[in-house]
Design brief:
Blueprint lengths: L14 E4 L14 E4 L1 H4 L13 E4 L8 E4 L16 H4 L2 H15 L10
Antiparallel strand pairs: 1-2, 3-4
Protein name: HNH endonuclease
InterPro entries: HNH_nuc
Organism: Corynebacterium variabile
């Protein structure tokens, strides 16, 4: 599923996107990749020099997400991170697994005993 806010593009119709841009030293590995629908992928500034384009950052571990998307300054002067909270993403197996293991790390709760979806 595309990580772009509001997108429901499936992986097969998405592009792989470096969270930390390759030109900025981002690694080409699974930990630094996220899916992005082609239209949203084209809007990201990997160099993070243009405040009027989208930027991507690695999300804080406690968030349970992999990527924060920073909107253009023209759309949000505060540039507060946004996420894809599309309903189909919430139950995606990878998101569910990360959320369970995050809860284990934060609360000492065993993921197998968790009733968190």
């Amino acid at each position: 599923m595309s990580s772009a806010p509001g997108s429901d593009s499936p992986p097969a119709a998405s592009l792989m996107h470096h969270i930390v841009g390759w030109s900025a030293g981002g690694r080409t590995d699974l930990d630094n990749f996220t899916f992005a629908a082609p239209p949203q992928h084209a809007l990201v500034d990997d160099t993070q020099t243009d405040p009027d384009r989208w930027w991507t950052h690695v999300a804080p571990p406690e968030s349970g997400r992999r990527v924060d998307r920073i909107p253009p300054q023209s759309a949000d002067p505060d540039r507060a991170p946004v996420h894809n909270d599309h309903p189909t993403v919430w139950r995606h197996p990878g998101v569910t697994r990360r959320r369970r293991f995050r809860d284990r790390d934060l609360n000492g709760e065993d993921p197998a005993d968790s009733d968190t979806p």
